[in-house]
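Morning. Coffee machine broken again, so started the prediction first thing and wrote up yesterday's gels while waiting. Chain of 157 residues, entered below exactly as on the submission form.
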Amino acid sequence: MTESQKVYPQCRVVPLRMLSPDTTEIFLDKVVKVKGIRRMTINGPSLPKTVPYGPARGKPNPNTNRRTIQVGDSEVELRVQAGMFVFELEDEGVTENIRAVCDEVFTKFPYQLQVGKYMKTSPTLSDYCKYGPDADEKMVGLSDPRKDGPVIIQGLK
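Came back before lunch.
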């Protein structure tokens, strides 16, 4: 079985509320230290630099949630307000390590940790258009043709 044919377990963490940049930074800084995470995505409402529509279209969008946070050794600009985290794991045992981090960080509000399939595992047409036929398998399913590429966090293994 080749690396691209192997099926990796996935889980997602859904906090009860949208996270502030500070809480997102604390959570991500702890979760990148968990061994066995192959890749992850952060989903939530977009935080555009400029107003995308309406009478103020094109003007700066002064949103305090759009800022740069420190995660591991990387600086990451938040493009979304964190509402859900999806992880692809090396093995199912890593789920309990992620749960331990969640229990440590999310003390003032509940969260759900769900196991299932949440990321695409085979290349899409958008992946082919953006990265070509020899795309890195860790980028599969993470491309959005309208946006910049995904942010790579150093130290995530």
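The two ends are 21 Å apart (CA to CA). Going to sketch it on the whiteboard this afternoon.
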